Structure formats: C-alpha cells, structure tokens
Amino acid sequence: MKNSIAVIIVTYNSTKWIANCLRSVFKSEYPDKFDVVVVDNASEDNSVEIIEKEFPEVDLIKLHENKGFVGGNNVAIKEVLRHKYEYMLLLNPDTIVAPDLLSNIVKVGDRSQVGIVQGMLVLGNERSLTNNMGNAMHYLGFGFVKHYREQVSDWDNREPFEIGYSSGACMLIKREVIEQIGLLDEKFFMYHEDLDICWRARLAGYKIMIAPKAVCYHYYEFNRNKEMFYWTERNRWAVLLQNYSLGILLMLGPILFIIELMVIIYSTMSGWLFYKLKSYVWILVNLFAILSKRWKVQLNRKVSDDQIMKHMDIELKMSEVDNDILKQIVNPMLKFYFRIIKGVL
C-alpha cells in the first residue's frame, strides 16, 4: 500500500518507557495503514510481558541474545521488507510521538530524492527545549548533536531542510534506500550506525532531511563513559575507511594523524587509553570486513566526495563539551585544513 509504514522499536530492559511509547504510537492520526514491530534484545526485565499483555496488536520478535541497536533493527527491517511497506520508522523506546508525527514525517519522505527523514526531537522532560534538530557529520568522522536545548517555539514554522545525518532515535527510511544501499552495518552494534547509513544514502544520491513539524519527545540522557568512547572511536574509523574515496583519505591523512594524537592524549588524561587502544585492535581484527564493505559502498557511489562534504561540519561544537583548547586551537586548525582540501577539490 502506498505510504504504508512500519514503526520499528528495539527494546532492551525498556520497562520504564515502552508502554508510554507504544500508547503514543497507536494514537497516531495517520490516514493509511501502519503496523508496529518490536524486537526485544533478550531483556531481563518484564518488557516482553508488558508488550504481550497490553499491546497484542504488536508484531513482537523475541531474540535469545542481545544483538544491539543495529542487529535488532536489522531483524525488523528484514521482516518489513518481506511485507512490502513503503517506509520504516526507527523509533527509540524512550520516546513519545505526537499524534501527527507519522503524517508529517511521511510528507517530507514523499519528496523527490529524499531518502531519510528525522523527526524533531524535543526533550521529554523539558518540552519547551529541543533535543536534536539534526546531527552534525564532521569531515573527520565525528558525529554530534546540533541545536541542543534551543527553544522549540523558534522552530515551529521552519520548513524541512537538509541535515548532516539523522538520529536513530526517530528516523524514517524509504524502502528503496535499504534496497539500494543495504541494511544497517552490524559491525557497529551501536553508535555511528545512523551516521553511516545516512552517509551511504547520500553517496547513493539521496537527501537527508529533518521534518520540524514531526515532533517526537525524547527522554534523552547524555552518557559519556569509557564504553561509549570505545564504540564511537572504533566505529568512527570504520565509517571513514568505508565511505571516503581513497584520494580524500590520503589528503586527510595529516590532519587525521594530528587529531588522533590529540585523542590519545585526551584518553590518557581521562583514564580511557585502554579503550582507545582497544578500538585500534578491533579495527585491525575487522580490517578485511571493513575493506569488503568499502568495496560495496564505493561500487554503489553516485555522488562525489566534494558534494558530500558540503553537508559536513568543519568545526567540533559538541553540546556537552565547552573547551577552550577546542575553540582556540583545534577548530581553527580544522577550518584551515578543510579550506585546503576544498581548494584541491
């Protein structure tokens, strides 16, 4: 059915959130058919019992192991592809959607060349403030939230616009995008998978948009810890190695080396050096898989790196980090080097 949509939610010990999330989804004012698929990643609480008891209409897939955010979503996406849905909406369990979210986000998805759309993420506990109006994709592979804790009222009348990449917390993907570029990359398990799929979609010629009128309340908690540092650093390098052309990687070599030294110094001072070194080990162990994926991505490429870099951020402006070294030393250096790259291109 045209415009039919499957809402995909991956749960793992999500008792605190899942009932309110599902209630909001089923209150959606959407004119066409939509269904809800929940994949449970072997929860150890009573998430499954809540879903089975209160939401029998949910297509519940119970896994016997934790496949992570990526693996869980891929299980559901494969199911959705078999049933010929036009769209799939990846949704975090710690969200509540506005009644018109599905209608508004699909309107943007229907536009020509649009492949992925993010809803406007609003802080669940402070609903006058934004959580995420699109993520920044930095040219060195870093990803971070943009427009954090801004007034929601400032965005009420904004038209949809292109963003660096969509947050996986509320991400609409067209069926044709998955058919063309493939599933989420399961090597990532979690973190940077949303950056990667948006980068690959853009390489295939699709636009990545945000729909400001598609409101999703997100009970977001910033979590910066050693494990997260490990996942994001290893996955950042995998994304870079897979998605950039060889020429750009060679040109970026000097600045990547400098920033890498800075990351090592930072991780040493923070007591996270083990996790940084662990990320290098993972890259080496998985190098063949990374290069195999790279071959597929580059084969599917329709857009040049010059065009991709127009949608990338030059400076690092992370919402939870206010650092004078970043502002006065790192960012001016990053801006200078980016100008050199653009000049060559």
Task: Give an account of the 3D structure.
The chain has twelve helices and twelve strands. The strands form two sheets. Strands 1, 2, 3, 4, 5, 6, 7, 10, 11 and 12 form a ten-stranded mixed sheet that branches. Strands 8-9 form a two-stranded antiparallel sheet. The longest helix is centred in the last third of the chain and has 25 residues, at 246-270. It has two domains: 5-218, Spore Coat Polysaccharide Biosynthesis Protein SpsA, Chain A, CATH 3.90.550.60; 226-344, no CATH class. It starts with a strand and ends with a helix. It has helices at residues 18-26, 47-54, 68-82, 101-109, 175-181, 193-203, 226-243, 246-270, 273-285, 287-300, 305-308, 324-344, and strands spanning 5-11, 34-40, 59-62, 87-91, 95-97, 114-123, 130-132, 135-137, 143-145, 161-162, 170-174, 207-218. Helices cover 45% and strands 19% of the residues. The mean pLDDT is 93. By secondary structure, it is an alpha/beta fold. α2 links the parallel β2 and β3.
